[in-house]
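Sample entry (114 residues):
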Amino acid sequence: QVQLVESGGGLVQPGGSLRLSCAASGSIAWIYTMGWYRQAPGKQRELVARITRGSNTIYADSVKGRFTISRDNAKNTVYLQMNSLKPEDTAVYYCNAVPSLRSWGQGTQVTVSS
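Predicted structure, serialized as tokens:
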């Protein structure tokens, strides 16, 4: 089973940027679609961005035009570039396959606040 480790979160002011990384313990090349999910306090986990093996991408309306997902199969890593961050982007961010694998990483906290 692939283990996923997210990193790159932190505290940022509204309008700022962060780049999240997701390192997999094994190859992700066989996983057709990888995605970034987030879970805000008191809310369900939601899928915000996904990318196929062929680098086709789909974004949730709430992040479209601000977030960019990418993947490097050679490095077994998935990235999420987040620009123009808003307070409503505050959440714990996770990466996983789409549909998700059984196990999840610990996530990385993103807090957008002045």
